[in-house]
Amino acid sequence: MLSAFPSSILACATCMADKGSLVGQAQGFAILFMLVLLAFMFACAAGIVITFVLRQRRHQRMHADTPAV
Questions:
Q1: What are the extents of the domains in the chain?
Q2: Of these four, 13, 16, 42, 52, which has the most CB atoms within 10 Å of its CB?
Q3: pLDDT tens, position by position, for the chain (69 residues)?
């Protein structure tokens, strides 16, 4: 049944968009936007991990000076 349809109907817009068309340009910018957003999220996650590491080190330094009971 699917073989009755032309191949252009089954192809996604990413594969079939013209380089100069507005749809193709919008798809390119959407991919760039997604990559920038993903990089921002990874940077936020790395910042949280670094903050936890720095807090743990500061906590260890503060409690290393106090004698054990």
A1: 2-64
A2: 16
A3: 555 655 555 556 556 666 678 887 888 889 899 999 999 999 999 999 999 999 999 999 988 877 766
